Amino acid sequence: MTDTKEILSYVVIIIIGIILAQHLNVVVSGSMEPVFARGDVVVIQKASFLGLSEMNTSQLNVGDIVIYDATWFPEPVIHRIIYKGTTPDGRLYYQTKGDNNPTPDPVIVYPEQVQAKVINFGQNPGESPFVIPQIGQITIWIRGL
Fold it and tell me: What is the CATH number of the domain that holds 96?
């Protein structure tokens, strides 16, 4: 009986580790400095995790920091929403920008492009993102980024 409980406890630990790992994202550029830097890890809430919706991507606000599938860059981008609007035909969109970038991103972002939102501790969107400093450096080194 003890062996079964021990095996079960290891399985639970592995499952929790997998779930936690899916809710962490390594920052690979300096575009959001000084909020977070290259090598920091941010804790995220996913739009969809194992088929479950963790957030509604149509209800994001100016100030939220999101990870989205960029049409202008080959990897997902993590930037702040600076404007929320609708196209002339009524379609919702977001304008994003890296805090350390001089200009907004070149293409607007639609809700279906948003993969995740950085978890925030502050009262206002994006005010105090959940950041774990520099522990992602090993991932950057392994991936050769």
Answer: 2.10.109.10
